[in-house]
Amino acid sequence: MSDSRIVSCGLLTLALALPSLATAGQHGRASVDSVIPEGPLSAHSGSPADWPEPLYDDAIFSQVMVDRLEYRDSAGAPNAWLWDAQGWVGNDTQRFWWKSEGEGPINGGSPESSNLELLYSRIISPFWNLQAGVRQNFNPDPDRRFAVIGLQGLAPLMLETDTALYVSDDGDVSMGAEFEYDMLLTQRWVLQPRMEVSASLQDVPEYGLRQGLNSSEVGLRLRYELMREISPYIGVSHERDHDHDESTTALVVGLRAWY
């Protein structure tokens, strides 16, 4: 097995093991099942069916989250910068979302890749939202547009999950998924394993994509919350381009902020 595969497998194993480590120290706490009365549960709220339904708030709220704004010092590849941001406006049940990602070389000027998604989101369970909309690529293929349908929410063990199915204007189908988990080491130090994958359901030779897994990334970031809204971080990220059999490991320094 090559060194890159060993590093990739090691980081992936660590990322998947951390959630179980985070829940290992719950001695003395009551389980959720022990405090919820027996009987049928509401499909909408998850509370006992004979409890009053929660009151949905129709007030309009909004949030902007810059999840990653970082510098990447890569081994064997040009150093790069990256952004990963999203935001929403709406009420408890319906929201308008936007999401944008991009990256480029430090000395190269313009981004090598960037995109923007505009989505309608509706809550379908206490922890999950169904999202649908459009995606526009700006780099490197500005002529590619996609219809998007996806799920975003919290999986068991508080695993933040963002998945999407894309259908291009040429009819090509692809998928993407991101998973993040926040381990609170203290009230301010947070360790976050992260994994991201993308795949195509068919070959798309004009864009250099093969059927199957196209790219993957595993990372581990340690952030310090100066305040809840502003958190600088450091970490390591390992990316693999499965179509071209290339991989890159980078040390990262960045800022996480929300408003």
TrEMBL record:
GO cellular component: cell outer membrane
Keyword field contains Signal: yes
Keyword NADP: no
Residue stretches spanning the membrane: none
A Pfam family per the record: CopB
Residues spanning the signal sequence: 1-24
Residue ranges of coiled coil: none
Any one GO MF annotation of this record: copper ion binding
Name of the featured protein: Copper resistance protein B
